[in-house]
């Protein structure tokens, strides 16, 4: 656990050196949101690569309306910091054309992925789909929990329902409590 905390502290300092403290986020800074996402994943006992992907999930900008900390031309450097698998998840999350991809998850047997940076369309990498779903849920949970009043729009709850079969028992347990609290 001590090694994980030291690794987290070092990675947070790296994010801050990229300017994460300079970007406002829901009730705080981007750094706080990134750490919050990491902590949710860590609380679910996810592997370190997924937790680190949660910590860096916005480094290339998570959608076209958000600023990026680094350009995608620095993928090699990020991979050296957090590992290949974690960086692949970060790139997948940042490059995902979410309005195109997210509605397919859980409703289609084959999910097509569109890269918002390149426009390329391909089959979603099946070996990353579960981690992508857990990262997406952790991101949205941190956002909702940091609003003045925790709230989930019906479209977010619907997305969580579609992702439910693809996530771990720990995440399903969290979602069950969320559905009990916010769904009638």
How are the SSEs placed, and which strands pair?
Blueprint: H1 2-17, E1 24-25, E2 28-29, H2 30-43, H3 48-56, H4 75-82, H5 84-95, H6 98-101, E3 112-114, E4 121-123, H7 126-145, H8 154-163, H9 169-182
Antiparallel strand pairs: 1-2, 3-4
Helix pairs in contact: 1-3, 2-3, 2-7, 3-5, 3-7, 4-5
Secondary-structure arrangement, i.e. CATH architecture: Orthogonal Bundle
Question: How many domains?
Answer: 1
Order of helices and strands: HEEHHHHHEEHHH
Tally of strands = 4
Low-confidence stretches: none
Strand order of the largest sheet: 1-2
Structural class: mainly alpha
At the fold tier of CATH, the topology name is Hypothetical protein af1432
Largest sheet: 2 strands, antiparallel
Describe the structure.
Pfam families: DUF6817. InterPro entries: DUF6817 (IPR049202). This is DUF6817 domain-containing protein. Residues 15-97 form the DUF6817 domain. It comes from Pseudoalteromonas aurantia 208. This protein is mainly alpha-helical and 184 residues long. It has one domain: Hypothetical protein af1432 (Orthogonal Bundle), CATH 1.10.3210. The protein has helices spanning 2-17, 30-43, 48-56, 75-82, 84-95, 98-101, 126-145, 154-163, 169-182; strands spanning 24-25, 28-29, 112-114, 121-123. The strands form two sheets. It has a two-stranded antiparallel sheet with strand order 1-2. A hairpin with a 6-residue loop joins strand 3 and strand 4. The longest helix is centred in the last third of the chain and has 20 residues, at 126-145.
């Amino acid at each position: 656990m001590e090694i994980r905390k030291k690794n987290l502290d070092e990675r947070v300092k790296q994010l801050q050196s990229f300017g994460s403290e300079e970007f406002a986020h829901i009730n705080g800074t981007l750094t706080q949101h990134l750490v919050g996402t990491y902590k949710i994943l860590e609380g679910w006992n996810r592997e370190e690569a997924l937790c680190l992907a949660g910590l860096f999930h916005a480094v290339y900008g998570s959608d076209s309306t958000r600023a990026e900390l680094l350009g995608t031309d620095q993928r090699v450097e990020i991979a050296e910091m957090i590992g290949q698998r974690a960086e692949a998840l970060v790139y997948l999350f940042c490059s995902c054309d979410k309005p195109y991809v997210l509605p397919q998850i859980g409703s289609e047997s084959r999910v097509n992925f569109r890269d918002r940076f390149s426009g390329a369309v391909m089959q979603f990498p099946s070996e990353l789909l579960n981690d992508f779903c857990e990262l997406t849920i952790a991101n949205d949970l941190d956002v909702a929990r940091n609003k003045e009043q925790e709230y989930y729009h019906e479209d977010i709850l619907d997305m969580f329902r579609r992702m439910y079969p693809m996530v771990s028992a720990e995440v399903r347990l969290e979602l069950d409590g969320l559905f009990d609290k916010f769904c009638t």
